[in-house]
């Protein structure tokens, strides 16, 4: 790891990181990453829409709704602590209390995120004795940040970090984030986790609103296999302590949202590119929709169609599968108005498929990044989504025994 | 093909079949199957819900809404005649007229179904000269029936036929059907086609209602990959000419629906078992739903989850993936009331996963047929659905070049 040339979440002033093994994974690979703020931070979060929520999501929501400040985020991997009932809630709180004790804060100032096997008791009392060593290893070097991003990984093949800065009249501020992707753990369930920290001073309501807006066009616009886990979480911390906080009315607020969106989109695209077994990155741009719901329906149908995704894997120029997915999406449309392009080449217009030269089709499909542009032609709503292909490696990774 | 021991759609009195090559497939493999009734029949149909409809679906719907009688059904494979605009409509009618001329009826008494590549002109004028030879080969032997069922096949690995009889006060009647499954043609798009014929005398309104009811628990309760094609069609013909027709009030009507449902379920299950690359047949039984919509949402989420389907392929006993799919289905539920069983073994109850002995889990997953029973515990609605696993062969079949 060439730390000197890397970016790191520790580029955000006042952030230190730790990582190591606390006893979840049998083979003693790192299974814990800790992100610590020097000062207490306001925080925002977006979470899975799955009705099964891990104990950690319940615990994070309790802190969010209680308006708590946060000093640290602990991410553990190997056990999702989902489907574990009340004992699971106690386990999450035990870990929070363990971290709080070591860094000198309250348990409800520590956020805990889990990822891993569902339905297996966590038994946190086995883990807390190792928290002290974990926290003593914390540092603010780029290496410490990169190691924490790496410790979050499961079947991810590379750590995911993005850092953007914003210039304002008050000076320069940093937004840094890490994520783990839709990989399977030992190999049970895809979980997407992200921790983002900024040194901006901002009102918590404005922070939550900014995260919702940024997530809409990033984490909520990607699909690897259409599944959402009980654990999916994005946590955003703002550590600034200026009395003059950013609000929705501040002139810099839009700039903040823009840079936050950049961080989220960087991380979301990395998750798709590192999707299990993926060989192609596919951008689906929907325009002309009658409603935002319709735009999402179209993007969802196309991005989750196994027929579309296997065609991309096989480099098979196959507009019929895309058009069929559009047709079953249940969106309002007029076939005579519909236009579909694959990487700038029109494949459907005026109610019928249009022929594309075989050599051009072959060339388009050989690219690692492919754009599908769908203009419904019946309204002004639009959105861009990201997905990957469905490959032999995906089936291999996800069909292996857990034992 | 051991015709003597086979059942055949020609077991329905007054039905003859033909099959052969009419010029669609380049390699001169059979690409046309014809089902002829000695007498005109009343007919019913259920069709794809995809907003892109093949010209043949438009043409069939026109005949259905016009209350037409039917003498023959022509099924062609190799070209879906979808995404082909008005020229496509003309092509379908040209084939209907060609068949009508040969058997001596009106063009609107012939139904045409297509399956194959989307967006390529059919040029039916190339095909009509070969219809005469096709029709001259027609016969009412079991071999003729089996050959027609075989000519409909695309990536299907076996022909699909079911015959049931019903005993009534008026005598014995036969219901016979054939189907082609969710295979890809040359390999573009999954299409499910079925032709069912009975010698019952029945009012067309009662016939349509019976088909809707039978399809609900058969063709509309199966999923191979969650896609629906522009061509999916089920055509049901009733050739009986008794003046005393079956109506919804007739005492035999429920028996008719029951036997029709048996034929439809037989064919639907064969389609799933012959799903591309499938190695496991999975029955998903949902009970205790607050609404029929909720039952369908749950069944759809579980049966289309690539994580669930790859786990079954890998014989990985993985309740977490099923529970996560249930959780994202958007159905009304209460996690405390939910119970999930895999082949009779409880895996989720009282709000948490329940442990299953490793040896038992291995035994369950090694079976070719697996039952997932989901009791939502919040209502009285129920339904049973059928799906298959997602395998390397599925990816292989669907990622190959079309060229």
From TrEMBL, chains A, B:
The active site is at 191 (nucleophile). The record marks 190-191 as: Cleavage. The keyword Acetylation does not apply. GO terms for biological process: L-arginine biosynthetic process; ornithine biosynthetic process. Keywords: Acyltransferase, Amino-acid biosynthesis, Arginine biosynthesis, Autocatalytic cleavage, Cytoplasm, Multifunctional enzyme, Transferase. GO terms for cellular component: cytoplasm. Heterotetramer of two alpha and two beta chains. This is Arginine biosynthesis bifunctional protein ArgJ. The gene is argJ.
């Amino acid at each position: 790891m060439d730390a000197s040339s890397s970016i790191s979440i520790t580029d955000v002033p006042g952030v230190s990181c730790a990582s190591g093994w606390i006893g979840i994974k049998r083979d003693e690979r790192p299974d814990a990453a800790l992100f610590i703020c020097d000062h207490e931070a306001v925080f925002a979060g977006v979470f899975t829409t799955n009705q099964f929520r891990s104990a950690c999501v319940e615990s994070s929501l309790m802190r969010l709704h209680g308006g708590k400040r946060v000093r640290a985020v602990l991410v553990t991997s190997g056990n999702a602590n989902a489907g574990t009932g009340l004992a699971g809630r106690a386990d999450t709180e035990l870990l929070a209390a363990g971290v709080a004790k070591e860094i000198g804060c309250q348990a409800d100032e520590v956020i805990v995120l889990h990822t891993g096997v569902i339905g297996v008791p966590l038994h946190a009392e086995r883990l807390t004795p190792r928290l002290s060593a974990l926290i003593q290893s914390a540092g603010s070097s780029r290496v410490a940040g990169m190691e924490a991003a790496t410790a979050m990984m499961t079947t991810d093949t590379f750590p995911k970090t993005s850092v953007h800065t914003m210039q304002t009249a008050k000076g320069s501020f940093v937004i840094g984030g890490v994520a783990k992707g839709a990989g399977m753990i030992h190999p049970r369930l895809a979980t997407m986790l992200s921790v983002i920290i900024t040194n901006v001073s901002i009102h918590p309501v404005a922070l939550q609103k900014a995260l919702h807006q940024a997530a809409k066009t990033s984490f909520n616009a990607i699909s690897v296999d259409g599944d959402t886990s009980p654990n999916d979480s994005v946590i955003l911390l703002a550590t600034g302590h200026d009395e003059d906080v950013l609000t929705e009315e501040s002139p810099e607020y839009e700039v903040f949202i823009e840079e936050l969106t950049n961080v989220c989109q960087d991380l979301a695209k990395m998750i798709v590119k590192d999707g299990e077994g993926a060989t192609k990155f596919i951008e689906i741009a929907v325009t002309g929709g009658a409603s935002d719901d319709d735009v999402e329906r179209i993007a969802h149908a196309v991005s989750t169609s196994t027929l579309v995704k296997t065609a991309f894997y096989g480099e098979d120029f196959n507009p019929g599968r895309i058009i069929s997915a559009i047709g079953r999406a249940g969106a309002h449309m007029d076939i005579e108005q519909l236009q579909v392009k694959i990487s700038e080449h029109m494949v459907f217009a005026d109610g019928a498929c249009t022929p594309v030269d075989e050599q051009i089709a072959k060339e388009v499909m050989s690219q690692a990044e492919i754009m599908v542009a769908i203009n419904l032609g019946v309204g002004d709503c639009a959105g861009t989504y990201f997905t990957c292909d469905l490959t032999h490696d995906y089936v291999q990774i996800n069909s292996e025994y857990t034992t």
